[in-house]
Amino acid sequence: MFHLTEFYSWAGQLPPSQKACFLAALIPLFPLAAMVIIAACGGKILKKHSHVPAIIGVAMSFVVSLVLLLLFSTGILGEVMRSAYHISFATWFSAGALHVPFGVYLDPLSVLFISFVTGISLLIFIYSSGYMEGDYGYFRFFAYLSMFVAAMTILVLANNFLLVYLGWEGVGLASYLLIGYYYPKNSARDAATKAFVVNRIGDTCFAIAIFMIYLTFHSLNFANVFYGPLQSASFRAAHASMMFWIPLLLMFGAFAKSAQFPLHVWLPDAMEGPTPVSALIHAATMVTAGVYLIARCMPIFMHDLPVLHLVGIIGTFTAFMAATIAMCQYDLKRIWAYSTVSQLGYMFMGLGVAAGSAAVFHVFTHAFFKALLFLSTGSVMHAMGGELDIRKMSGLARRMPITAVCLLMGALALAGFPGWAGFFSKDAILSAAMNSAWSGGPWLAVVGLITALITAYYTFRAFFRVFMGDLVLPRTAGLHEPSVFTLPADTDHERHADAGGHDNGPSGHDAHSADHQGRNTSFDGPISMWGPLVILAIGATTVGWLGVWGGHGDQGWIQSFLSRVPMNAGLRYVPTPPAGLPLPVTAVQRLSPAMGMTIGGTLAVLGILIAFYFHWVNRHAADIVKSALRPVVTFLENKWYFDEIYHYGLVMPLWFLGRILYGLDHVLDGIVVNFFGYFPQFVGWILKPTQSGRLRYYAIGMVSGLVFVILGVLYLLR
Amino acid sequence: MNIPLNHLIPEIIMIAAACLVALVGLARSDTVRRSAQWISLISLILAFIAGWRLGIVDTGSAWPLGSLGTYGTLLASGVGILLVLLSWDMPFALDPARADKTFRGEYFAMMLVSLAGVSMMAKVNNLIWLFIALELVSIPTYIMVATGRGNANAQEAGVKYFFLGSLAAAIYLFGFSYLYGFSGSTDFSKIAAAFAASAQLPYIAIIGLLMVVIGIAYKIAAVPMHYYAPDVYQGAATPVTAFLSFAPKAAGFIALILVFNLTGWKLSHGAARAVPDLLMVLAVLSMTVGNVLALLQRNIKRMLAYSSISHSGYMLAGLAVGPLLISSSMTNGVSAMLFYLGAYSVMTVGAFAVLVYLQGKLDAAEELDDIAGVASTYPLAAACMAVCMLSLIGMPFTVGFLGKLFIVQAAFSSGHSILAVIVMINAAIAAAYYLAVITAMYLREPWAPVTVRRPGAIQLSAALAATLVMVLGIFPSFLMSLSRYSGSEVTRQLVRWNSPPQSNSIKKISALAVNTSLRLSARIR
Question: Could you tell me which residues are beta bridge partners of residue B193?
């Protein structure tokens, strides 16, 4: 037997921090095991029960994460050492002086991240089991999902940069596979490729940053990088250029993953994947990785404030730009996609003004309400047969009340309506920017406030259009989203489509509506779909209060929790800086918190009221305004022409270059390669007559060879 | 030949078995006649074991060279086992040109005698014995070529091979006579002493050496004595061709090592410079001529004949580099050459074994078209062929790769980088025609399906050879240590002869080198 008792007694003697690290190491293993199980026997054995291992795996991870969160927040771990623990279990590989371990890095930041990543993922998994029911490749979907979560947890828990990179690439791969899940569709394939290529740009920057980190610090472990020589001013002066390039490249890496300004183009297209995938990407597993990376590397960024400010400026610009684009989109998922880009911009604004805990707080609340918005949208899509154009539907609240209420909660949170989650976190970022020690901060805050107004407007534009007003259903309503997989005749899928959608003909549509006249809730779908919605709605409504209540002194729970993350001293016994994760410089009080909240709340309400007038009360007025502002609207509808700029500015020149090089290659192939190919044969052809097959010529050849050699040697020796 | 008799046990076994086979092969009963193969096989296994028990022999300052002798014995008997297996149904009973259709055992008797010659080659200590050993290898092969196959092609090949071989023998015998004239003795130690004593070699010695080299070049099928190879290889029965690609070549290279050993490898200045330069020119010409002419061939046997010319070129390159003075690694040119010899023997015999196996009709499996698409019907045979071809190309994880690597390494570390580059360019050219064989087997549709079943022994031979190619490619230490000690033994003799008595420090260094290698060889044993 494997000496299990000895193991227990050995483990029992470990200090609690190491136990916690061992516990944390289990978190990525559960989804990883689920992925292996589903991939191995999903197709043959599990079939339509493929979601079971996935859900169990992520649920176990979530439970472990909660235990860790409790350990940290109750002080069992947190108070003893107040900071971070890291442990290396095994060597991944070593080359020369480079040793890359498998290891875990636990501090309040990673514990908070891991908790909501696994928690939100769990809800999305449960939702997916209803949403994807009967789809061809059901098991494939859940294997990818598990892989996605496993990669994200590795990314968050890793204790060195290379392991982060492993998770980083794993997330990229899983997102590629999931966005392209409906691979028979051209648009899905293109979107997957786009996401992958754009992410590669960031990955390359991140990789170069890792090389530079190794060159500078001779180690890739967080502890050695952040709390080692970095703390000495002379070291930083000696590596001044590295101190500039490392954060800059890390920033680009983060921007690709988190869809910020130059590299944001992939995220809106990523909605080609199934809706739960969008929820996962937007809320839990993918785009938050960039925020996490910069928050994690804050000690490096702290020593290069221009780059940090650049993060804030680009974040703010992205927030504004994406919000304006979202005003003029008609696809519900696309609106939420741009809202994600915009909200991520807020987070980077927070990081840029060194308000890390505010940024992480916004990530946390955003995870709830964005997952909620996407999943509710998925319900709408499910009920409307794949139709998401907000011009084609109206007044759905009567048909799907649960979905409508849930989506309303999410919309209120996104709009920053006072009391809802987004209100508090956005306000935390904006007031941090307003009171930043950096003189540019207030300008960012002003742009952020304008963006908040726009955000409230476009959020409720979508909500009022879809759920309020007269009942209008698209023709496809009630049908199951048409499957793109025509390859095999999947009987499960057909049965499901029959149960949902009765008839495809136009006459069937009326009968269908009549059928649902009496049973209003039936569009909400099975409990596996609306159950998670309700939980998320509660979360989106309430988690914001964690930023106000529950902490030490007048801090919120989040702030005081994150304040234990060590920033610029040794790993243990960090004197808690007042604002936690952010920069410990004395902030300037330009705007009192109460005043900030009032302004933010007012703007949100104002935005909602504008949307209320134009998109519920008097929709005709919206059309008049739209035609009056035609050029602007066209500009926004075309998303600031970013895709076109990239196409004509980057893709086409590269394509032309490729054609030219291909032509050159052809010439080289034709001349050089063929020459070298035929030359030996030509020589052989010349020599061929020497092999006449006649004995006497052979004898003459041999003797003349001998004579030639001897005469030649004698000549040389003469 | 004053060497301990126990060194000759393998040869005695082989010759005795040859006599027995010759007797048994004439027996009245067909069954008894067919025991010839078994007797040959068992005798070769016994000879291998006897050679193994000899181990790395240190013969001190006296001729012959112990390790090289062991190497020759192990090579002859080891590859001989493969050769006996692949010629299991020789002379070919299904040959329609044969009138009597009966089995005769003399083929195996000839084979054993020839192998005994190869095995004995390194153990000689006299020019006369060297000549006898060379002829012992060659004369049976003339008979094998002529009688192995009943058609006119084989007769023609046999006659060509015999006449040209006699011419070559005359040339090197003439060279031997010059060496005798130079030193006044046929005894190796005396000739070596004469070489060591003369600071400036007289022309008679240099021309003698040149004639010996050119004459023996016939045995190894090197330029300018290569003309016979394609015709003879193509005309002979395929098992005989396999034998020709091994036995004379091994014998010739061992003989060349012995001859250069006589000179103490001291040919680096003055007029004597001509000999290594000539070797290098011959090496380059052989590999180039062999490769470019092989490119034009559609007949696999003819192609392999040219390939054997080019491989002789690679080995000559190793020989031209020569042994490095203080070198226990494979950068020693002679060690590299010996390694290549073993590697080449195994892979070329493997390739021929597959050809024999695929020979359904008389002349089938000779053209590339004949083996088209055999991968689908005979996957194992095709895989063996592919492994041997990849090894002949010099792909990593095959023994051929290591062979080329060591040759190139030796050339580089002795400063002959141009030679090394030429070897590599030639290896690249050679890939074209070897890959054509693999392409034909794997990518083309069957042309004329091969249906005739052949004895399992032939398949076993091919599989053994292919396995050896892979195993020696990954675990080369056995062949490496054998060739390394044989090569460093040459170095040791060199040290002994070259040490001028007046210099104490050089004496000490050489004594140290001798002691080190003695200790190493003792450990090996």
Answer: none
Smallest Cα–Cα separation from B67: which of B283, B382, B328, B241? Answer: B328
Are A379 and A530 within 8 A, CB to CB? yes
Beta bridge partners of A86: A105
Residue A693 and residue B203: Cβ atoms within 8 Å?
no
| In chain B, residues 150-179 whose CB comes closer than 8 Å to chain A | 159-160, 163-164, 167-168, 171
Enumerate the residues of chain B whose CB falls inside 8 A of the CB of residue A717: 203, 206, 271, 274
Query: Does residue A696 belong to the interface with chain B, where contact is any CB pair within 8 Å?
Result: no
pLDDT of residue A78: 47
Least confident of A143-147, A282-286, B69-73, B495-499: B495-499
pLDDT at A519: 40
Read off the pLDDT band of A4 (50, 70, 90).
low
pTM: 0.61
What residue in A sits closest to B288 (Cα-Cα)? Answer: A680
Average pLDDT, chain A: 80
**In terms of pLDDT, which residue wins out, A574 or B70?**
B70
Phi, then psi, of A160 in degrees rounded to 5 = -145, 165
Find all residues with CB under 8 Å of B503, minimum gap 6, and list them.
none
For A193-252, how does the pLDDT look when each residue is reduced to its tens digit (9 = 90+)? 888 988 998 999 999 999 999 988 888 888 888 877 777 778 888 888 888 899 999 999
Bridge partners (DSSP) of residue A103 are: A88
Q: What is the pLDDT of residues A498-535, one digit of tens each?
A: 334 333 333 333 333 333 433 444 566 777 778 888 88
Measured over the CA atoms of residue A591, residue A593, residue A597 and residue A600, the dihedral's sign is positive
Contact A713, B324 (CB under 8 A): no
Give the residue from A157, A165, A185, A189 showing the smallest Cα distance to A176: A189
B window 393-432, beta carbon within 8 A of A: 429, 432
Element (H, E) at A457: helix A441-467
Give the DSSP H or E segment for A88: strand A85-95
Helices A695-717, B274-295: axis angle to 10 degrees equals: 150
| Euclidean distance between CA atoms B330 and B410, whole angstroms | 7
Structure tokens at A468: 């309020």
pLDDT digits (tens, 9 = 90+) for A164-204: 999 999 999 999 998 888 888 888 888 898 889 889 989 99
- Tell me the C-alpha to C-alpha distance, in Å, between residue B185 and each of B128, B181, B194, B275: 10, 8, 9, 22
One-letter identity of residue A718: R
Contacts of B224 in chain A (CB under 8 A): 701-702, 704-706, 708-709
What is the distance between the alpha carbons of residues B86 and B76, in angstroms, rounded to a whole number? Answer: 15
pLDDT at position B1 over 70: no
Of B51, B245, B37, give the one whose Cα is nearest residue B141: B245
Q: Pick the residue from chain A with its C-alpha nearest to B172.
A: A706
Are the C-beta atoms of residues B232 and B242 closer than 8 Å to each other?
no
The CA distance from A691 to the nearest CA of chain B, in Å, is: 6
- State chain A's maximal CA–CA distance in angstroms: 119
Per-residue pLDDT tens digits for A107-126: 888 888 999 999 999 999 99
Q: Hey, what's the torsion of the CAs at A34, A39, A43, A46, to 10 degrees? A: -10
Nearest to residue B357, comparing CAs of B232, B456, B237? B456
Mean pLDDT of A646-669: 85
Cα dist. A308→A212, A238, A325, A359, B275 in Å? Answer: 18, 20, 26, 13, 74
Interface contact flag, B168 A685, Cβ < 8 Å: no
- Looking at beta carbons, which residues of chain B come within 8 Å of A687? 289, 292-293
Amino acid at B476: P
Report the candidate in A311, A323, A602 with the shortest Cα–Cα distance to residue A444: A311
Contact call for residues A564 and A555 (beta carbons, < 8 A) = no
